[in-house]
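Why Cellulose biosynthesis protein BcsQ? Reviewers of the renewal asked for a concrete example.
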Amino acid sequence: MATILMISLSGSPGGSTAAMALTRCWYRKAILLEADTSKASSFLSGYLKGRYGSDKNLINLAVAADQSGHLDFNDLWAQLLPLDTDNPEQAQQWLLPGLMEAKSAPSLDHLWGDIISAADTFEASGTDVIIDAGRWSVGDKRTALLRAADAVIIVARPSLPDAFAIRYRLEEIQGDLASIGRGDHLSTVLIERPSSPYSSHDMARSLGLRITGSLPWDEKTAAVFSDGAQVTNPGRFEKRPYIRAIDHLSGALRSELDERRGLLNEALDIELEDLA
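Here is what the prediction returned.
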C-alpha cells in the first residue's frame, strides 16, 4: 500500500480537484481520504452531487475509535463511498468523506494515527490511499499523516504569493520529514495559470523543490472532478490536456514509489544477510 499526501500552503490552488482526478485515474484500487479540517466536505456536494447524503464521514470514525479504542478494516470500510456512481458494485476507487462542519475538527486531533493504522490493513487488497489535506497550518495536528506518507506533494501555483508561502514553511516541513529519513519524499505539483509571468521550472528552481508534475489550467475538465460535471464525449475527454497531465502525474508517482519500495527491499535484504 502507498500513501500520498497532498497539501497546500497558500490559498486554494486546486489541490482537491487534483486529488480527486488523481484518484479516479489511479492505476489500481485507491481510497481518497478527505482530511481537510478547514471546511465541510466538498466532494459529497461536488463530485458526488449529494447522491449519498452525509451519513458516512470522519466523525463516525472518531466515535468508533472512542468506543473500541482502535480502528480496523471494518471501521474504515463502513465509511467508504464508491466514486463510480454508475457501477458502484464494481468500484475501484472510494471516498472517505471529511467533516460535515469545520467546527468539528478538534474532535479528530487524536484520530489521524489510528486512520493510518486502519488504512494499512488494505495493503493485502492492493489499495492505495490518496489524502487531500487542504491547507497545512503551522503546528498542524495531522502530523501523523505527513510522517506516514510515502509521497508528500505541495500543490501550488507558479506565483509570487505561493512562492513566499512555501518558502516560509518549507524548512519546517522538510525538517520534519528529514528527521524520520523521508526528506526525499517531498515534491511539488504546480497548477499552471495562463496569466502567470512565472513558469513551473522558475518557481521550483527558486524554491529548490522537485517537480513531480504540472497541471494545465482547464476549468471545463476540472469541473468534472470538482463539481461532478457530465462527460458528454468520453473519447475526447480522455485526450484533454488536463487528463493527459493527470495520467503523467500518476505514472511519475508510480515510478517514484516503486523505486523507493525497491530501495527499501534492498536495504532489508542486506540487513537480513548481515544477521544470517
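The radius of gyration is 19 Å. This is the kind of structural detail the renewal will allow us to pursue systematically.
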